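Section 5: illustrative case.
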């Protein structure tokens, strides 16, 4: 089972996003039969089988085990991944694209950047898996609580200067055999965890 699968086929996305099928994917983190799933979800086994066939046709679930019970064969199914994300590429020409956003300080531009990351990394990961190579990536995730808007602005300036200096130090446009890497840094307020009001 993959840790994460990116769905870039529009038809597979439609299948995975259907509420009952989405619930089945969550239930199938461990192998289970249609009868077991029917009991858990409180729906008829025939309906479960119908949804499982749709998921299987789009390679979102697979047979984990077959068991013989008298003259019948019970199939225990399992999800192909622990979690899924729908690639913006599934939206085709209307997918979010940072090249179409002029306001680089807007929230929509940040979302478009995130969409491009999903799209590009998914493509690179597919190639890496075909060649049995590890995809070199770097991820940094931290939380900073600023005392004031002034401190936030000062940090943004300092951070930008530091990144630009590092980029200038390590970037070599003429390096033979070198490979360009994309560096994206974003910051946004964390969602509220309670009804307590905090300044934006």
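Designed sequence:
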């Amino acid at each position: 089972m993959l840790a994460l699968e990116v769905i870039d086929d529009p038809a597979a996305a439609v299948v995975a996003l259907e509420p009952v099928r989405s619930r089945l994917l969550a239930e199938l983190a461990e192998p289970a039969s249609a009868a077991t799933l029917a009991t858990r979800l409180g729906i008829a086994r025939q309906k479960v089988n119908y949804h499982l066939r749709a998921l299987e046709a789009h390679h979102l679930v697979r047979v984990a085990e077959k068991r013989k019970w008298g003259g019948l064969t019970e199939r225990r199914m399992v999800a192909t991944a622990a979690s899924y994300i729908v690639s913006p590429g599934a939206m085709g020409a209307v997918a979010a694209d940072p090249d179409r956003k002029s306001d680089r300080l807007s929230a929509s531009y940040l979302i478009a950047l995130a969409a491009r990351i999903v799209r590009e990394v998914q493509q690179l990961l597919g190639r890496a898996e075909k060649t049995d190579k590890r995809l070199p990536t770097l991820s940094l995730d931290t939380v900073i609580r600023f005392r004031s808007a002034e401190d936030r602005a000062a940090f943004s300036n300092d951070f930008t200067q530091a990144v630009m200096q590092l980029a200038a130090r390590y970037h070599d446009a003429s390096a033979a055999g070198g490979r360009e890497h994309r560096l994206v840094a974003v910051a946004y307020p964390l969602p509220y965890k309670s009804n307590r009001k905090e300044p934006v």
